[in-house]
């Protein structure tokens, strides 16, 4: 297939590009390589896929020196004309939209970045997909949509009308927008609610990266809600495996769906929502202990109250993916953390 991956210089997008190009798909990636976090890490990811920093220029296509079936272009989600032109020219079979303004806490200080990228930008993807007969649009949602919901594990059939951050609200909006386009234009769309993804080349604003760097540098780590938190940490290889399986099978309508008793997970339209997580929440303090074991160093913990926009726990009910795609994550937290730290030490030349 010819597949577009947006956010191709991002954490998940980079790993997905490698997987798809490695299996022989014709892959096209775009990313705006913004400075939300260190762009040099994004350029390092691109270099791993054969796209050198010197070749990255806005609106200019770059070919990979590693994968002959991979091309990359620097582009903004908000660039309506640029995206329309790209879709018209390339005629993608499938699109995986991972590009977005990420981060819960950043949405408290820069809300317009989320409206521009996650709302306006996603509209551009939807419009381009429906006007160019894209066979399947897969897009990133987030576990953050569950907001104030306290029923565990989180089910894709649960109500998600009480977000606690603008980031979460923008992801919920994406799900609503995607359903509207699926209903109106019969566009097959699948939304994936990601649960705390981690692993090599991970984001520097995520807990694993922050904790690892601080412990190595002998600085205290901030532990919110006094450590009384749980997260459904999901290793990147398990995430990519699930995403690839979903891309390969376009969403179809549920013939048993009823507006009298509506199922939020499906629709009469070709629309699906899935949780994609490890289905095994880990206590934050146990997660920190795994980092300490892998580094051979103890953390100095600065225990703090809960942050605004944060939630006490996440726990994915990934039964839908297991049922429809035989999806079963295989990487435990200790193994996953060790793989991340091995990468971190090598990438940054750390001597412990």
From TrEMBL:
| Presence of the UniProt keyword NAD in the record | yes
Q: Which residues form a coiled coil?
A: none
Is NAD a UniProt keyword of this protein? Answer: yes
Gene3D superfamilies in the cross-refs: NAD(P)-binding Rossmann-like Domain (3.40.50.720)
Query: One Pfam match, by short name?
Result: Epimerase
Keywords from the named record: NAD
Tell me which residues make up the NAD-dependent epimerase/dehydratase domain.
3-255
Q: What is this protein called?
A: Capsule biosynthesis protein CapI
What organism is listed for this UniProt entry?
Candidatus Wallbacteria bacterium GWC2_49_35
């Amino acid at each position: 297939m010819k597949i577009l991956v947006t956010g191709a210089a991002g954490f998940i997008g980079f790993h997905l590009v490698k997987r798809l190009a490695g299996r022989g798909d014709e892959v096209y990636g775009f990313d705006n390589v913004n400075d939300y976090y260190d762009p040099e890490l994004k350029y390092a990811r691109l270099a791993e896929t054969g796209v050198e920093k010197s070749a990255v220029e806005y609106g200019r296509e770059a070919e990979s020196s590693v994968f002959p079936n991979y091309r990359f272009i620097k582009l903004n989600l908000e660039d309506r004309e640029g995206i329309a032109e790209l879709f018209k020219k390339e005629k993608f079979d499938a699109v995986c939209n991972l590009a977005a303004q990420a981060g819960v806490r950043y949405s408290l200080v820069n809300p317009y970045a989320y409206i521009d990228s996650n709302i306006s930008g996603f509209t551009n993807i939807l419009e381009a997909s429906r006007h160019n007969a894209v066979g399947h649009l897969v897009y990133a949602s987030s576990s953050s949509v569950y907001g104030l919901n306290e029923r565990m594990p989180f089910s894709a059939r649960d109500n998600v009308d009480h977000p606690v951050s603008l980031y979460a609200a923008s992801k919920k909006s994406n799900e609503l927008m995607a359903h509207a386009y699926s209903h109106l234009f019969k566009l097959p769309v699948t939304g994936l609610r990601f649960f705390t993804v981690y692993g090599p080349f991970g984001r520097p604003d995520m807990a694993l990266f922050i904790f690892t760097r601080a412990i190595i540098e002998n600085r205290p780590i901030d532990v919110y809600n006094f450590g009384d938190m749980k997260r459904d940490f999901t290793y990147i290889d398990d995430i990519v495996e699930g995403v690839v399986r979903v891309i390969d099978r376009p969403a179809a309508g549920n013939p048993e769906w009823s507006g009298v008793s509506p199922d939020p997970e499906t629709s009469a339209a070709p629309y699906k929502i899935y949780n994609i997580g490890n289905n095994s929440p880990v206590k934050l303090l146990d997660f920190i202990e795994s980092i300490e074991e892998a580094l051979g160093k103890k953390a100095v913990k600065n225990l703090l109250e809960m942050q605004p926009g944060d939630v006490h726990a996440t726990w994915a009910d990934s039964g839908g993916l297991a049922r429809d795609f035989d999806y079963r994550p295989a990487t435990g937290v200790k193994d996953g953390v060790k793989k991340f730290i091995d990468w971190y030490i090598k990438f940054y030349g750390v001597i412990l």
